[in-house]
Design brief:
By secondary structure, the chain is an alpha/beta fold. It is 33% helix and 16% strand. The protein has three domains: 168 residues, 3-Layer(aba) Sandwich (Rossmann fold), CATH 3.40.50.970; 149 residues, Rossmann fold (3-Layer(aba) Sandwich), CATH 3.40.50; 192 residues, 3-Layer(aba) Sandwich (Rossmann fold).
Length: 557
């Protein structure tokens, strides 16, 4: 096969093969031509071409989170690489595996007035695990820095890494070469650390009220089994969010819904002696405020991260291990006295609140965001992946119990609205056999509209756009909702036509009959094999009022 004749490019191709990197997401350019030529001809790589670098990076993130593999990104020099930054920061805090291969101009041309030259070396700063810049040399190439770089990429915790390559012209030269996978790489760094606790430490959990809080991405069948067993103890309660993937009927799965119904005078009886947090980001602002106001006696974080673990500003212990090993150890060796029915305190509140929800929606609700999410909760197809837009979308969905066999995904690493659509598309492409659904706000959808340019557009992805003519979250949160600048600066009302934007990219927009309610519209949309996007208009004035009514109604439980 004819690969680029540049030794540095050939070595990188070789290491990608050795480390099982199969997907390369390209954005068109000239400086990255040696990579395009080489990856394109090799049968072990699948290449994807996406014009917009920001969309391309989130697309790669969606693939990586679904495949649980490293996905590579490759772009030309200059500002192109900067467009990767939003997705890189998201991947960093989500501990997702992205490899950035940025082509660069020769070092001698940088800051000399030549086009498409910026200071690309270490441009992502602390938001990548490692950066390495390489020279294009016709002499003997030093392989060790490249080999070491790829070895580090496989070590825990996973995070994006940046390989910047200064390439000389000519860029399109080729040579006949044989590049095939060498001896399989021994993945030494991926083994979990063995958890060891003294018997005294294990028994310290015995006569204590324990609360386990599940953050994003903690899903695991072994962990879930261990956590369900741990939760059988009456002094244990598990609080869970949809994005954790850890739902069980014995858990309290809607944190904000429950916290809303706790009276101020009764708050302290809901505070645990020991708080254990697992997984990544926690969506609920209320639970953060609750434990900052009422700190537990002891906070234990269990994850492989070395950042973002002191969520409540009082961290006592951090175990860098798989949470399943921690709970399995306690299940086997701890003596829990079960003389404190702490779980019943939380569960009784949760059951009372949950029982009031149907009667609330039996009353007339008029064109509101809340009504849309209630309808979605009742119409989601089985075994689908639901991608949630950020801000109000992910928060609304947390008000309803997770649907069994539905996988919830959301970009909660940095919680930005950029890239929600691109990430969902990448995930749907990576899991072509599964049904994917994205529900997005109108601002987020418009912001990431270049994602609709991606071809082929996955036929297994359906998008619901909640069109309330602006950033509805700012009419809900304290501060902005009472500001004189709300409409222009925070909510950012707009006149863009979401339907026209989608049709402009050649997508099929489902047009429901006006006499049908949201639930009927969704059922028809999900059954229509050709329809790709459903736009649901809601009343931006009524939306915050409906949410307030909902919380007040539940509070009377």
């Amino acid at each position: 096969m004819e690969f680029s004749n540049k030794p540095v490019v050939q070595k990188i191709i070789q290491e990608c093969l050795n480390h099982d990197i199969k997907h390369i997401v390209f954005s068109p350019g000239s400086r990255n031509a040696p990579f395009a030529i080489s990856f394109d001809v090799h049968p072990d790589f699948e290449t994807h071409v996406i014009h917009d670098e920001r969309a391309a990076a989130f697309y790669a993130l969606g693939m990586s989170q679904t495949l649980q593999q490293t996905v590579a990104l490759c772009c030309t020099s200059g500002s192109a690489v900067l467009n990767y930054f939003p997705a890189i920061s998201e991947a960093f805090y989500r501990e997702q595996r992205l490899l950035v291969l940025s082509a660069d101009r020769p070092k001698r041309l940088i800051n000399k007035g030549h086009g498409q030259t910026i200071m690309q070396h270490e441009v992502f700063g602390k938001h990548v695990k490692q950066s390495l810049s390489l020279e294009d040399t016709s002499g003997k190439l030093n392989h060790k820095p490249i080999t070491d770089f790829f070895v580090k990429m496989q070590e825990l915790p996973f995070r994006p890494m940046h390989l910047n390559v200064h390439l000389e012209e000519p860029l399109y030269g080729v040579s006949e070469s044989l590049i095939q996978k060498e001896k399989a790489y021994e993945k030494k760094g991926i083994k979990d650390k063995v958890l060891s606790l003294s018997n005294e430490k294990i028994q310290s959990f015995g006569d204590q009220k324990i609360l386990v809080l599940c953050g994003q991405g903690s899903k695991d069948t072994i962990l879930k089994g261990a956590l369900v067993d741990f939760n059988k103890n009456s002094n244990v309660v598990v609080l869970n969010e949809n994005t954790s993937g850890m739902n069980d009927s014995s858990f309290v799965n809607c944190i904000d819904r429950a916290l809303n119904s706790i009276e101020a005078k009764s708050e302290k009886k809901f505070v645990p002696d020991i708080l254990i947090t697992i997984g990544g980001a926690v969506v609920s602002k209320r639970i953060k405020s609750f434990f900052i106001k009422h700190p537990p006696k002891r906070h234990i974080a269990i994850n492989k991260s070395n950042i973002g673990i002191d969520l409540f500003f009082r961290l006592d212990e951090h175990y860098e291990c798989h949470p399943a090993s921690f709970f399995t150890l306690l299940n086997n060796k701890a003596t829990l006295l079960n003389n404190k029915n702490f779980k019943a305190t939380w569960n009784q509140l949760d059951y009372l609140v949950k029982d009031r929800i149907p009667s609330f929606f039996h009353e007339a609700q008029t064109n509101t965001d809340l009504e849309v999410f209630h309808a979605l909760y009742h119409t989601l197809p089985e075994k689908c992946t639901l991608h949630l837009g950020n801000s109000s979308v992910v928060r609304y969905m947390q008000l309803f119990d997770p649907v069994p066999n539905v996988n919830y995904e959301c970009n909660r690493g940095t919680s930005g609205i950029d890239g929600c659509t691109s990430t969902a598309i990448g995930s749907a492409i990576a899991n072509a056999e599964g049904q994917h659904i994205l529900i997005s706000g109108d601002v987020s959808f418009i912001y990431d509209s270049n994602a609709l340019w991606i071809r082929p557009f996955p036929q297994n992805l359906k998008i619901i756009v909640l069109d309330n003519q602006g950033g509805g979250i700012f009419k809900i949160i304290d501060g902005s909702k009472s500001s004189k600048q709300l409409e222009r600066y925070f909510e950012a009302k707009h006149n863009a036509n979401v339907t026209d934007i989608a049709k402009g990219f050649g997508l099929i927009v489902y047009s429901p009959k006006k006499n049908k309610d949201y639930q009927e519209q969704m059922i028809d949309f999900f059954q229509d094999e050709k329809a790709q996007i459903l736009v649901l208009k809601t009343d931006c004035i009524e939306n915050p009022k409906a949410l307030n009514r909902f919380f007040k109604y539940l509070n009377n439980a």
